[in-house]
Amino acid sequence: MRIWRAALNKRVINAALIATVVVVAVVLLRLAGATNALDRALWETRFLAGERPVSGEIVVVDIDAKSLEKLGVWPLPRRLFAELTDTLVKDGARDIVFDVDFSAASNPEDDAMLAAAFERAGNVSLAVFRQSASMSPEAGEVTNKPLDQFLETAWPVVVMVPMERDSRIWRNLYGFEIDGSAELSAAAFLGDYTGHTEGAFWLDYSIAIDKLERVSLVDVLEGNAAQGQFLDKKVVVGASAQELRDLFPVPVYSVLPGSVIQALGGETLLQGRALEKQGEAIVMGIAFLVFFLLLLTKIEGWAVKIVVLSLTALSIEIVAYVILTSSPVLVSTASAHFILIIAAASVVLRELGFHKLLSHLATIKRRNSERMLGLVFDDSFDAIVVIQDDGKISAASQMARTLFQSESLLGKSARDVLPLELVEEALSVLADHTGNKPVAKILSLSRQNGARRYIEYVVTRSERSVAQSGSTKKVATQSVACLTCRDVTEEREAAERLAYLARYDIGTGLYNRNGFEEKLDSATRTARGSGRKVGVVQVAIINLDQIIASLGFSYGDQVRKSIATRLKSHLAHKADWAALSPEVFAGVFQCDRDQDAEMIESLKEVVGEDYKIEGARISVQLKFGFIVSDGQMSPENLLKKSGNALAKVRRDRQVQTLAFKPEMDVALERRRTLETELFKAIVRDELHMVYQPLVKLADQSIFGVEALLRWDHRELGPISPAEFVPIAEENGYIVELGAWALNRGMKEALSWSSPLRLSVNISAIQLSRGNLIATVQEALHRTSFPAERLDLEITESLFIDDSLDLEFHMRELKSIGCSFSLDDFGTGYSSLGYIPKYPFSKIKLDRSFVRQSISNEQDIAVIEAVMHLAKGYRMAVVVEGIENPDQASKLKELGCQLGQGFLFGRPMSAVNLSTLLSNAA
């Protein structure tokens, strides 16, 4: 009897010690927060297991993506919220809660409309909340309250929600103290709650809040909501659009808008489902009791005890779920489950023993490793075949069976199912005992369709130990060859394709620049060895853009292909050809003295003829630039210098073909230097304005000036506008120069004693690349120059560019007071159609009509015609180029009233002009 009692006492003591250790471990886990994560996962599962319907008393009006897209602005105008309030009241809404920030003032009219709508409704509640003053925690918090004029006719409700440690919303507030006053929360207001305003309640996520009635705000405003949808309902207005960032992570539903979370809080309270956490100690006690009894029992077998513990855990969860469905109680069962889990681990350790457990785990790990290696082997991207020293296959991966088109490779002779080259290589490696490093090789096979197939392979030699027959202790070493291979046909074809693309233009089949440079290098080396010359010619299709603009890109591509076809068909024996860009082709050829001209003429004949493409006859306009060298020049320089010749001939309308000359390098270098220096001219204060007087011929009094831009470089000296202005137009810097000239001209004109008119020239680039209207307005505003004294001079060349909306710019600038002069009238693009279409106030007749003595009848006829034309359209005429008194007298006789020229003054500085005006006065 004593022995039995001693054994029982020992068993009880051991059980108590083990149970105590388990409880301590669980308490530590609970303090570390591990039980919280499990509890919330279990709660979420219970919520998902039983769904409760919504009450139907709450409706959400969504400021959703559809509303933002249709209304097109955020924040929404307050007048829209006023209209929404009136609509909801008209439709019978019982209460209206705005989860919208109305703490900042809008425009006074809209704010007044919204306050009036709240007063008419009488049942509106507005959002109040506290938030961090900045991203820094030390900055404190600020309170966001609606404007006082809104709170005079509406009630504040708190819309803050507490975020838990898992960064999700599990609870809502009954209320909160704001600026010393206890305010009810929006959820409590929606849930008809009348108790204390302190504390929070757990939300019931088993309520199917995704079935809540939600209506798009724009549908309410447009009258598309269902009739009676808001009758006697509580309405929550809030944002759900992602860009408005009023979204919160929650259990069950992942993410919900703040307005829907408030509605869920209201539903929780309406249905009496404000959850409370209870019962944790009870379920922990039950789990502990079950574990303790299992430790005392004499039941053998760890599996039975594990089943008992599992059934206990399941029973606890079932009871917790039943409690949740019948009453608003959340049972915390995580601690109990941890007790049961640790208990299960201790049972296994006690029953199996530690060493047995380690052995069992090692066996499982070995089996898993073997299984994993088998899967890796069979699923390998490479084809793997293991060949024994007798030539038979002992293993093959799925990819190997696919590659060699055989589903049964195991046990077969490798010679019967594999390419002979692979088998010979494998047997050779098996016979080689030197341990040479494996080398990857490529095997080329012929397909049935004649195409090639490429297999990359490598053979490695391995050894394995096997038991000798008739003995369990002796082992023998067996060698195997592992053949790893893959089909690299696509890779080889792709590499060949890339190699082709690296040297050839895909659209034409000609060499590209890389391939052409290789040919150039070869041609120069050949020329140096043979004593012949090497020529490089570049051909530009000048009108390719016009062809594409009128007929489409496909025609442009076909023109390029047709040119390439002619080059390959007729001139391939004379030169190697390339497509350097969409509109530039190039060729390199060997020639003797004076044979370059023959080559260029052949090229013109072949390429210059018209093309017939899809029924359309297309004529191409070509320019040719070329260079002939003795082979001493590098390929890069040959391309560069032939390109320089092409660039120069493209700017010359009269010439089609141009050979490179050394002086072109000097001109190009100067052009590059000027382009670089021009960007620094304004900063260095190298630019200045000069002014040429515009006079009345009757008394030669100055009524205006033409502003002209000048550049005095600190090292190169004065640079002609004819040289630097085209450069500025090509690189677009004319936009900045034009703005600078406008501002400087207006500023200096205001310093003169007389209120002269200021004429400034306008470039086409200022219209196409810049914002001329804004530039002029900014200059007028900055300088306070009267717009009525500003004349903008436009040359007739601007009218040939249909892409410029010249009429729009002129009408806009005229509306602010500016005037326009038609400059250089009669120099090549004249059309009487310009006169009535555009708002010109002056015509400037070009100096070419004012000869030394105006006695030529033709010139007189033109001048009289222009005068008559201008009179008919109520425009003034300014005659340019007047250099002597005879010309001035004759023009005055012909009725000309205004003039400009060296007779009245050359372009001069603002200071000199000011002196001239003072002397004239």
Automatic annotation (TrEMBL):
Highest taxon, organism lineage: Bacteria
Protein name from the UniProt record: EAL domain-containing protein
SMART domains: CHASE2 (SM01080), EAL (SM00052), GGDEF (SM00267), PAS (SM00091)
Stored InterPro entries: Biofilm_reg_signaling, CHASE2, EAL_dom, EAL_sf, GGDEF_dom, Nucleotide_cyclase, PAS, PAS-like_dom_sf
Keyword Transmembrane: yes
Domain EAL span(s) in chain numbering: 671-921
NCBIfam families in alphabetical order: GGDEF, sensory_box
CDD domains, per the entry: EAL, PAS
Protein's organism: Roseibium sediminicola
UniProt keyword annotations, A-Z: Membrane, Transmembrane, Transmembrane helix
Residue ranges of the TM segments: 12-32, 281-299, 306-324
PANTHER family: BIOFILM ARCHITECTURE MAINTENANCE PROTEIN MBAA, DIGUANYLATE CYCLASE DGCP
One Pfam entry name: CHASE2
